[in-house]
Amino acid sequence: MTPITGKCKENTLESKMKDRKSELCSRYIKIFVVVSCYWIVSIVTVFVNKYLLSGASVNLEAPLFITWFQCIVSFTICFCLSKTGGIKGIFVFPKGTPWNKDTFIKIVPVSILFTVMIASNNLCLKYVGVSFYYIGRSLTTVFNVALSWLLLKQVTSKRCILCCAFIILGFFLGVDQESLLGSFSLVGTIYGVIGSLTLSLYSIYTKRALPFVNQEVWLLSYYNNAYSIILFIPFIILNGEYTAIWNYGHFDSTMFWVQMVTGGICGFAIGYFTSLQIQVTSPLTHNISGTAKACAQTVIATQWYSESKSVLWWSSNIMVLLSSALYARFKQVEMQVNSRRIVPEDEKSLI
């Protein structure tokens, strides 16, 4: 009886190991597919937006109107998913409505930051090349550290501050090299800096707003797009785009609307795959993936637009990319250390 029992245990252990290997293999395949989709959708979205904002085919000098329409597309998709409850077998869309007084009062500050953030990002992309877009918006990490200290009184480690210093150095080196190449846009760079600042503020206020929507990121995205449709209207008027819109002669073109809807779908898709990537991996892996994606995006852009860049220009990109990756790694180590001790609620980072 003993040999039979031992053999049964051995078979059971072997079966469990096979099941575990199969489960790990399935998980790695899922992660690979999600990360690949994130890369593809993110890079395609940047190129599609660049085409819409400054392409000769569209030729509509109304970047905020284009961004506003993308919000309408995203809102429409969210609205339909809210009514259907999501996509069966893929994900469940949380229930909720933005047309509630209490919800509006609590979420609209986040929506204002969301509106300014996506507006400044698209304005930056309109005036700078895709290859320089990452450098133009590379100060987000620096603003995160500064705002964490100013608003939350949170001290950052010296090595993380050193990473920020190298990011700033890489940013100014990139600006200098872009200027020497004759392709530098001061307006586009300013919009990039504003986009980085508002993204940092948006991160803080998003963390504060999530409890009001039961920690549902999709619900917050739904509300943000709903309110942004309204918030964009005064910005469009103040930017003087109504003249360009009124005089535009291709609103009857099917191709124009196909391009506009495609841009809106891409905007929605990048939001979905960003959330999905964080869900199947971790925030740190998402940051590293985003950094690596930015590197690939820069290389693709220089080849696509046949751009020739200097060694120092590439050095600025490498400096920013490596510093951002090291910062993410150092923060992960610090978070692991902090997780082993009890931290008072008011000392926890909201970023």
UniProtKB/TrEMBL annotation:
Main location (coarse class): membrane
Annotated compartments: Membrane
Topology versus the membrane: Multi-pass membrane protein
Keyword Nucleotide-binding: no
Keywords from the named record: Membrane, Transmembrane, Transmembrane helix
Pfam family, one: TPT
Segments crossing the lipid bilayer: 28-52, 64-82, 103-120, 132-152, 159-175, 181-205, 217-237, 257-276
Superkingdom of this protein's organism: Eukaryota
Name under which the protein is recorded: Sugar phosphate transporter domain-containing protein
SUPFAM superfamilies associated with the record: Multidrug resistance efflux transporter EmrE (SSF103481)
Domain Sugar phosphate transporter, chain residue ranges per copy: 30-295
